Amino acid sequence: NQHQPIIAIDGPAGAGKSTVTRRVAEQLGLLYLDTGAMYRAVTWLVMQAKIPIEDQAKIGDLIKEVQLDLIPADSPELPTKVLINGQDVTQAIRTPEVTSQVSAIAAQAAVRQELVRLQKYFGARGGVIAEGRDIGTNVFPDAELKIFLTATVAERARRRTQDLKNLGHQSVDIEQLAQEIQKRDEQDSNRVIAPLKKADDAIEIITDGLTIEQVTQQIIDLYWRRKAEGRGKGTQN
Ligand code: CDP
Ligand code: CDP
What we know:
GO terms for molecular function: ATP binding; CMP kinase activity; dCMP kinase activity; pantoate-beta-alanine ligase activity. By secondary structure, the chain is of the alpha/beta class. The chain is built from nine helices and eight strands.
């Protein structure tokens, strides 16, 4: 069997998915797929084109025409470079405006259908660690290792506040941020298609009080353990 393993990382906003996933990818030599960046890119595009977010037919047509490129970053600290029709939108897809609209766009059937198709194509040969909301439940249900990464809302808001301060934002309202995070979690968890949900066979890691290094190491340990178990099974059969 030439299939390389797939690791699925899901969880709510600010749990540490992107940060930890990039590091695990680097250390295990896996390709990193940031599916949230894809939903953000489509959201940016819809806003640019001034299409009403409830116009699902138009949004569906728009996606079919667009050229979306994800270029892996050459350092684990940098986000994946995202290009839409050749334009670099790596920064533009992270604005509060995009963040506030992305859940509504990501709930749409046409959007999910097209992006999940691209994600499956990306993972077809394995050797991938993908992060998002529905990776273990929907995109790669047969992934060798599934992790559900989470933390309390307070901790996640604290992390996002720190991120914004590091980017030079002086006054960040942590209470407001906590409310926005909670609202997005609710929208993502309650949508009809592929909601945010822990897969039955996912391992939950609650990251409050854990460093990035500790979480990264836990996932790497689980990965090697899973591989050893897989080999064990192989010799029995
Ligand atoms: O990094 P952050 O947690 O802020 O969010 P993200 O991973 O960039 O994802 C942005 C949004 O995309 C989420 O809030 C979901 O609405 C949507 N998303 C999704 O529906 N399915 C995925 N597999 C990944 C993201
Ligand atoms: O991708 P997701 O929205 O799940 O979270 P992220 O953007 O990777 O992480 C949010 C912030 O939390 C980053 O600044 C990380 O450095 C930080 N973090 C942390 O402080 N402790 C951890 N155990 C994991 C992440």
